[in-house]
Amino acid sequence: MSERSTESTGEPSCGCKVGRVAGEYDLTGLDEELVTYWTDQSEDRYSTRDLAAHVNQRILESALVEAGLQYRDGEVENTYRLLTDDDVSSGTRVQTRKELERDGVPVEDIESDFVSHQTVYNHLTACLEASLESPSDEERIERSRDKLGALRNRTSAVTADTIEQLDRNDVLEIGEFDVLVDVTVTCKDCRQQYTVRDLLEQGGCDCESVADD
Ligand SMILES: [Zn+2]
Ligand SMILES: [Zn+2]
What we know:
Blueprint: H1 4-7, H2 17-24, H3 30-39, H4 48-66, H5 75-84, H6 90-102, H7 107-113, H8 117-127, H9 137-168, E1 184-186, E2 193-195, H10 196-202, H11 206-212
The site of one zinc ion (ZN) has 6 residues, from helix 2 and helix 8.
Protein backbone atom coordinates (compact mmCIF):
# COMPACT_ATOMS: atom_id res chain seq x y z
CA MET A 1 0.00 0.00 0.00
CA SER A 2 1.32 3.40 -0.90
CA GLU A 3 0.82 6.12 1.64
CA ARG A 4 -0.74 8.23 -1.04
CA SER A 5 -3.99 6.30 -0.69
CA THR A 6 -4.47 7.45 2.90
CA GLU A 7 -3.66 11.05 2.07
CA SER A 8 -5.65 11.16 -1.11
CA THR A 9 -8.09 13.99 -1.53
CA GLY A 10 -9.65 12.65 -4.70
CA GLU A 11 -12.95 10.88 -4.31
CA PRO A 12 -13.31 7.63 -6.23
CA SER A 13 -16.16 7.86 -8.71
CA CYS A 14 -17.02 4.21 -8.23
CA GLY A 15 -15.83 1.11 -6.42
CA CYS A 16 -13.83 -0.47 -9.24
CA LYS A 17 -10.09 -0.25 -9.75
CA VAL A 18 -10.31 2.59 -12.28
CA GLY A 19 -12.38 4.65 -9.84
CA ARG A 20 -9.98 3.85 -7.03
CA VAL A 21 -6.81 4.85 -8.90
CA ALA A 22 -8.52 7.94 -10.32
CA GLY A 23 -9.19 9.03 -6.75
CA GLU A 24 -5.82 7.93 -5.44
CA TYR A 25 -3.80 9.71 -8.14
CA ASP A 26 -6.21 12.59 -8.43
CA LEU A 27 -6.81 12.01 -12.13
CA THR A 28 -9.33 14.77 -12.67
CA GLY A 29 -11.62 14.54 -15.66
CA LEU A 30 -10.60 10.95 -16.34
CA ASP A 31 -14.12 9.58 -16.73
CA GLU A 32 -15.04 12.26 -19.26
CA GLU A 33 -11.86 11.55 -21.22
CA LEU A 34 -12.52 7.84 -21.26
CA VAL A 35 -16.07 8.18 -22.51
CA THR A 36 -15.15 10.82 -25.08
CA TYR A 37 -12.18 8.92 -26.50
CA TRP A 38 -14.06 5.64 -26.53
CA THR A 39 -17.21 6.89 -28.24
CA ASP A 40 -15.36 9.15 -30.70
CA GLN A 41 -16.93 8.69 -34.13
CA SER A 42 -13.75 9.42 -36.06
CA GLU A 43 -10.86 7.12 -36.86
CA ASP A 44 -9.09 8.49 -33.79
CA ARG A 45 -11.38 6.45 -31.58
CA TYR A 46 -9.48 4.75 -28.74
CA SER A 47 -9.71 1.02 -28.25
CA THR A 48 -9.99 -0.16 -24.65
CA ARG A 49 -6.29 -1.05 -24.91
CA ASP A 50 -5.48 2.53 -25.89
CA LEU A 51 -7.63 3.74 -23.02
CA ALA A 52 -5.87 1.48 -20.51
CA ALA A 53 -2.53 2.89 -21.69
CA HIS A 54 -3.94 6.40 -21.31
CA VAL A 55 -5.08 5.73 -17.73
CA ASN A 56 -1.74 4.15 -16.88
CA GLN A 57 0.22 7.04 -18.37
CA ARG A 58 -1.81 9.46 -16.29
CA ILE A 59 -1.01 7.36 -13.22
CA LEU A 60 2.66 7.45 -14.11
CA GLU A 61 2.55 11.18 -14.80
CA SER A 62 0.88 11.82 -11.46
CA ALA A 63 3.53 9.74 -9.70
CA LEU A 64 6.35 11.65 -11.44
CA VAL A 65 4.79 14.95 -10.36
CA GLU A 66 4.37 13.59 -6.83
CA ALA A 67 8.07 12.70 -6.76
CA GLY A 68 8.89 16.24 -7.86
CA LEU A 69 10.41 15.18 -11.15
CA GLN A 70 10.62 17.40 -14.20
CA TYR A 71 9.68 15.63 -17.36
CA ARG A 72 9.73 16.76 -20.94
CA ASP A 73 7.08 16.36 -23.57
CA GLY A 74 6.67 12.72 -24.53
CA GLU A 75 8.74 11.50 -21.62
CA VAL A 76 5.81 10.01 -19.72
CA GLU A 77 4.76 8.05 -22.80
CA ASN A 78 8.29 6.88 -23.37
CA THR A 79 8.82 5.84 -19.76
CA TYR A 80 5.53 3.96 -19.86
CA ARG A 81 6.67 2.20 -23.00
CA LEU A 82 9.98 1.25 -21.39
CA LEU A 83 8.10 -0.22 -18.43
CA THR A 84 5.46 -2.14 -20.32
CA ASP A 85 6.26 -2.76 -23.98
CA ASP A 86 7.12 -6.34 -24.89
CA ASP A 87 9.68 -5.10 -27.39
CA VAL A 88 11.78 -3.48 -24.69
CA SER A 89 14.68 -5.61 -23.50
CA SER A 90 14.63 -6.71 -19.89
CA GLY A 91 17.93 -4.92 -19.32
CA THR A 92 16.44 -1.61 -20.44
CA ARG A 93 13.39 -2.20 -18.29
CA VAL A 94 15.45 -2.96 -15.18
CA GLN A 95 17.50 0.17 -15.84
CA THR A 96 14.36 2.30 -16.20
CA ARG A 97 12.89 0.95 -12.98
CA LYS A 98 16.15 1.56 -11.13
CA GLU A 99 16.30 5.15 -12.28
CA LEU A 100 12.69 5.76 -11.25
CA GLU A 101 13.23 4.20 -7.84
CA ARG A 102 16.36 6.25 -7.36
CA ASP A 103 14.27 9.35 -8.09
CA GLY A 104 11.77 8.35 -5.42
CA VAL A 105 9.06 6.99 -7.69
CA PRO A 106 7.34 3.93 -6.15
CA VAL A 107 7.52 1.84 -9.30
CA GLU A 108 6.08 -1.32 -7.80
CA ASP A 109 3.03 0.45 -6.38
CA ILE A 110 2.45 2.18 -9.66
CA GLU A 111 2.70 -1.00 -11.66
CA SER A 112 0.23 -2.77 -9.42
CA ASP A 113 -2.13 0.19 -9.92
CA PHE A 114 -1.93 -0.07 -13.71
CA VAL A 115 -5.26 -1.16 -15.16
CA SER A 116 -6.01 -3.67 -17.89
CA HIS A 117 -8.17 -3.05 -20.94
CA GLN A 118 -10.80 -5.37 -19.48
CA THR A 119 -10.96 -3.29 -16.30
CA VAL A 120 -11.39 -0.15 -18.37
CA TYR A 121 -14.11 -1.80 -20.40
CA ASN A 122 -15.98 -2.84 -17.25
CA HIS A 123 -15.60 0.65 -15.81
CA LEU A 124 -16.99 2.22 -18.99
CA THR A 125 -19.94 -0.09 -19.38
CA ALA A 126 -20.84 -0.96 -15.77
CA CYS A 127 -19.80 2.11 -13.74
CA LEU A 128 -20.27 4.84 -16.34
CA GLU A 129 -22.96 3.05 -18.35
CA ALA A 130 -21.36 4.21 -21.55
CA SER A 131 -21.98 2.35 -24.74
CA LEU A 132 -20.61 2.55 -28.22
CA GLU A 133 -22.67 4.31 -30.80
CA SER A 134 -25.54 2.23 -32.11
CA PRO A 135 -24.68 0.23 -35.23
CA SER A 136 -24.99 1.79 -38.66
CA ASP A 137 -27.93 1.00 -40.94
CA GLU A 138 -25.73 -1.30 -43.03
CA GLU A 139 -24.61 -3.18 -39.92
CA ARG A 140 -28.20 -3.57 -38.77
CA ILE A 141 -29.28 -4.89 -42.16
CA GLU A 142 -26.35 -7.28 -42.24
CA ARG A 143 -27.08 -8.62 -38.77
CA SER A 144 -30.76 -9.03 -39.60
CA ARG A 145 -29.89 -10.84 -42.81
CA ASP A 146 -27.63 -13.22 -40.86
CA LYS A 147 -30.28 -13.80 -38.21
CA LEU A 148 -33.03 -14.53 -40.71
CA GLY A 149 -30.70 -16.67 -42.81
CA ALA A 150 -29.93 -18.80 -39.76
CA LEU A 151 -33.62 -19.05 -38.98
CA ARG A 152 -34.37 -20.17 -42.56
CA ASN A 153 -31.66 -22.81 -42.39
CA ARG A 154 -33.05 -24.05 -39.12
CA THR A 155 -36.63 -24.14 -40.41
CA SER A 156 -35.40 -26.08 -43.42
CA ALA A 157 -33.48 -28.58 -41.28
CA VAL A 158 -36.36 -29.15 -38.85
CA THR A 159 -38.80 -29.55 -41.74
CA ALA A 160 -36.59 -32.12 -43.45
CA ASP A 161 -36.11 -34.04 -40.17
CA THR A 162 -39.82 -34.08 -39.46
CA ILE A 163 -40.73 -35.34 -42.91
CA GLU A 164 -38.01 -37.99 -42.81
CA GLN A 165 -39.24 -39.19 -39.46
CA LEU A 166 -42.84 -39.49 -40.68
CA ASP A 167 -41.57 -41.28 -43.77
CA ARG A 168 -39.56 -43.77 -41.65
CA ASN A 169 -42.62 -44.51 -39.54
CA ASP A 170 -44.70 -45.06 -42.68
CA VAL A 171 -47.04 -42.26 -41.70
CA LEU A 172 -46.18 -40.40 -44.87
CA GLU A 173 -44.64 -41.48 -48.15
CA ILE A 174 -42.25 -39.43 -50.19
CA GLY A 175 -39.21 -40.03 -52.39
CA GLU A 176 -36.07 -37.93 -52.28
CA PHE A 177 -37.03 -34.37 -51.46
CA ASP A 178 -35.75 -30.86 -51.02
CA VAL A 179 -37.05 -28.27 -48.60
CA LEU A 180 -37.14 -24.67 -49.70
CA VAL A 181 -37.93 -22.02 -47.12
CA ASP A 182 -39.07 -18.76 -48.60
CA VAL A 183 -40.37 -16.04 -46.36
CA THR A 184 -42.60 -13.55 -48.11
CA VAL A 185 -43.41 -10.08 -46.89
CA THR A 186 -46.42 -8.25 -48.30
CA CYS A 187 -46.75 -4.50 -48.08
CA LYS A 188 -50.31 -3.78 -47.02
CA ASP A 189 -50.24 -0.35 -48.63
CA CYS A 190 -49.69 -1.59 -52.17
CA ARG A 191 -50.05 -5.41 -51.91
CA GLN A 192 -46.56 -5.84 -53.35
CA GLN A 193 -44.83 -9.04 -52.23
CA TYR A 194 -41.15 -9.46 -51.53
CA THR A 195 -38.99 -12.23 -50.35
CA VAL A 196 -37.49 -11.00 -47.09
CA ARG A 197 -34.10 -11.16 -48.76
CA ASP A 198 -35.14 -8.78 -51.55
CA LEU A 199 -36.84 -6.46 -49.10
CA LEU A 200 -33.65 -6.14 -47.03
CA GLU A 201 -31.65 -5.75 -50.21
CA GLN A 202 -33.66 -2.85 -51.58
CA GLY A 203 -34.28 -1.24 -48.21
CA GLY A 204 -38.06 -0.86 -48.38
CA CYS A 205 -41.16 -1.17 -50.48
CA ASP A 206 -41.34 0.67 -53.80
CA CYS A 207 -44.50 2.49 -52.78
CA GLU A 208 -42.79 3.99 -49.74
CA SER A 209 -39.87 5.40 -51.73
CA VAL A 210 -42.37 7.12 -54.07
CA ALA A 211 -44.28 8.57 -51.12
CA ASP A 212 -41.05 9.95 -49.69
CA ASP A 213 -40.35 12.13 -52.73
ZN1 LIG B 1 -15.50 1.94 -12.17
ZN1 LIG C 1 -45.79 -0.95 -50.66
